[in-house]
Amino acid sequence: MSADILKAFERHPDLLEICGAPGRAVPQAGLTNRVYRLEAERGLFFLRLPRPENAGLIDRQAEARNLGLAAELGLALPPLYVHPGEGILVTGAVDVMDCAPEDFPSRLGDTLGRLHGSGAEFAGVLDPDDVYRAQRDFLASAAELRPEIAPLDQALRELANRPADAGAIRRVPVHGDLSPGNCLWTPDRLWLIDWEYSAMADPAWDLAYAILEHGFSEVQESAFLAAYKAKQPTSLVPAGDRLEAMKARCDAVSALWALEQVARGRDAGIFLPFARGRRDRALARVRVLI
Predict the structure, then answer these.
(1) pLDDT tens digits, residue range 177-217?
(2) Which parts pass through the membrane (predicted)?
(3) Which of 45, 59, 74, 280 has the fewest CB within 10 Å, making it most exposed?
């Protein structure tokens, strides 16, 4: 049993009330949190403890509200214990399939359509341009990383000047981080986890991010978007060029997120190649669009 779990149970008596005495804890994948599948006296649970180096980076109050709403929609595992102040979260554990089902693009599109069309009012706003500017502000003092960032700055300025990008956007509740690791496939359904970046946003953000992070082929992307469109009014479905532009913005934000990890002292051997891959993909997409 790890010391961080024992400490959490000591500091939060409600954990013992909910889970019973903790037993074996199996670490799960996660970049921003420490996540465990916890065998405890009263059952199996997922326990999330935040990494100390990421303290203050997530609006945990907004996350808790949005997670509760997503659980009511049947899209998220219902929270059993949430402590926004320390970022602790407990849900019941589920048995996850070894690999996603063959029709997962359609099923993910259907799930995302249900979320975007739900009418739920999430806390917070996710604007990719604002996120990028905040990331740039954080990295301003990292002089050694400026050559990695400069081409992205120029590309996003050019993208912002496109006439197709003008006009009001109707914001919807979004997950914000639809990577494969945040999609738990069980034999009968899909659960979305890790609602840290959930907010109200352009629906194109979730669509673009999911397509990129899952590495959809053209056929898979078509199936994903068709299932999504079946749940949506036409006004919510972004046009092709706008979706492509959002893909570039998603990659730019992902690239700077990885550079932030480097600036915080995490393993450059892991995060710098990731940043460069996302940056180069964004630049290639912008060249096609401009």
Answers:
(1) 999 999 999 988 999 999 999 999 999 999 999 999 999 99
(2) none
(3) 74
Q: Are 132 and 252 in contact (CB under 8 A)?
A: yes
Task: State the CB neighbour count (10 A cutoff) for residue 15.
Answer: 23
Prediction pTM value? 0.92
Helix, strand, coil in percent for the chain, rounding step 5: 55, 15, 30
- Which token pair is 132? 């990028």
Please, what's the b/e burial string for 239-266 (b: 16 or more CB within 10 A of its CB; e: otherwise)?
Answer: eeebbbbbbbbbbbbbbbbbbbbbbeee
d(CA 104, CA 85): 35
* DSSP 8-state secondary structure symbol assigned to residue 185: E
> Beta partners for 26?
37
Domains in the chain and their CATH numbers?
3-92 (3.30.200.20), 104-289 (3.90.1200.10)
Residue 96 DSSP label? P
Kind and range of the H or E element at 218? helix 218-229
Calpha distance 67→124 (Å, rounded): 13
CB half-sphere exposure, 86, CA atoms < 13 A? 16
Contact 105, 178 (CB under 8 A): no
The answer to whether 50 and 41 are in contact (CB under 8 A) is: no
DSSP, residue by residue, 17-54: HHH-SEEEEEEE--SSEEEEEEEETTEEEEEEEE-GGG
